[in-house]
Amino acid sequence: MSPVSATTTPDPEGHTPDLPAAAPVRWERYIAMGDSFSEGLWDPYPDAPDIQRGWADNLAAVLSTRRIAAGQLPLEYANLAIRGRKLRPIIAEQLDVTIEAQPDLVSLVGGGNDILRASADIDAISAALEDAVVALRATGADVLMGTGFKAGAALSWTNGRVGAFNANLWTIANRHGAHVLDLWGMRSLGDLRLWSDDRIHLTPEGHQRVANAALVALGLEPDDAAYDAPLDAAPSAAFRETARANAAWMRQHVGPWVKRRLTGTSSGDGRTAKWPTPQPWPRA
After folding, report:
1. What predicted TM-score, i.e. pTM, was given to this entire model?
2. Distances (CA, A) of 129 to 95, 182, 207, 252
């Protein structure tokens, strides 16, 4: 297995250099594994608001469009991600299903729900991630992993854990020839305007920017070369306005999250994958 771990750093203007303008899309079947990040929360389809879109659906759409433009069959795509899942349940529930479907590209992004728990064992979840990558690479599939985000002030206490997890993830990628979507390194994601009201999921624009970063991680040209360019400066918020926003966040999002932890429930309980079977993308 040749090493294929890759990121390309945009220049100061946000443009990504040295990528082929018409790199072929060799993958025929892509499966996304993961949690709410890959399910795509806070990014509903305009014509189907009960179904979330997210970066992985966007990535599949771009890959399929490029295949069709090159005279190839559309990409086949499935998304097994379910919100609330920790990394080891993701692997337990989704790995065998993924391998049975025989994809040639798999994204496996998770660990954020583990890191938010006080009992998180970073080395243990990293070992589980490595075992899954080994199993996927043994089938011949290319694997795209994602680092954790650099959190803003409200969740900055997680950054040490995320940094340790990211270091392990890069080591896994180098050992086994996996691609890495470097979310920690995306400058644009430091802007709260790309985050939803719950501050742990992205807006539709944030998901689109991540889809472009995923293309770059796979060695392809992004649809938008300025995908990581910072947003225009935002006006400063008054102290009172900021305090009200923080109070609303605690009431609407932190409180329910704590209640689920205390009751042993999950936002994903009873949910099934939104796109469980590989089909030509986009669906009719």
Report:
1. 0.84
2. 11, 16, 23, 32
